[in-house]
Amino acid sequence: MKSSTPTLPKAKEPLSILLLGPPGSGKTTLAMQFPEVHFIDCDRNLDGPERYVRSINKNLSYTYDSVMIDDNNNEIKVEDRYDRLRAKLVEARSLPCKTVAIDTMTMVNEYIIRKVLKQQGQTAMRPMDYQPMKSYYWELLVSGIRSMGKTTIVTCHEVILTQPGKTVMTEEIIGYKPSVQGGIADYFGGFFTDIWRCETTPTPKGTEFIIRTNKTSKCPDLKSSMGLPSELPAKFTEIAKYL
């Protein structure tokens, strides 16, 4: 049995952060600013964020592994990429890095589907196939990510939830949720210590990246274990003040 006391409190769990937002909202850009980050790259889309981060930090340095190609630059079949991801997560535990980032969960969702279809010998998902899909997500999020022992960041695109608007042919946005299938999005909140939504906002000097951390009616899963403000610039220098 272990205990937590005023003089010897329980050690904090490593941060496990889910970054939600539409494409181009700065999710990968923010992840790249964390210290000593190792990327497990699932969509080969690091070049744009790197150019931006280097414009504000010329000393940027990070490591990465690709899930889409093997170590000899040969393309990996889509149905085999989930296994590659899991192998690279295991390797990352022993790497001399402080942060491990998976970019992006939306692509991982497709990799899991293709793995399940291959195993079941099917070309389309059936209701019975979603249970093994959930099992792979559980394996990835719990034994793969939460047991890493390091800060982990997972980026994920979002699905916009709408309902008919007050006038004909209009829609009203009522919420956002992670762009993953199989019902797993309803349980995402329990897999991460923090869930932040990345957004862009226009300013007189151009576009600014921001993050929102407090739950709202449209984003009820947002949370911050660090006591971050409800809105702040998407810069690690701002976040580091609360670590």
Overview in brief:
Helices cover 26% and strands 25% of the residues.
Describe the structure.
The chain is α/β, with parallel strands linked by helices and about 240 residues long. It is built from six helices and ten strands. It has helices at about 25-30, 45-55, 80-90, 105-120, 130-145, 235-240, and strands at about 15-20, 35-40, 65, 100-105, 150-155, 160-165, 170-180, 195-205, 205-210, 230-235. It has an eight-stranded mixed β-sheet. It has a two-stranded antiparallel ribbon with strand order 6-7. The longest helix has 17 residues, at about 130-145. The chain is globular. It starts with 15 loop residues before the first strand and ends with a helix. The mean pLDDT is about 95.
Principal-axis shape equals: globular
Given helix and strand content, the structural type is alpha/beta
User: How much of the polypeptide forms β-strand, as a percent range?
Assistant: 15-25%
The rounded distance between the terminal residues' Cα atoms is: 28 Å
Strands, count: 10
Number of helices: 6
pLDDT averaged over residues: 93
Q: Point out poorly predicted stretches.
A: none
**How does the major sheet shape up?**
8 strands, mixed
User: Strand order across the biggest sheet?
Assistant: 3-2-4-5-1-8-9-10
Indicate the radius of gyration in whole angstroms. 19 Å
**Helical residue percent band:** 25-40%
Topology pattern, helix = H, strand = E: EHEHEHEHHEEEEEEH
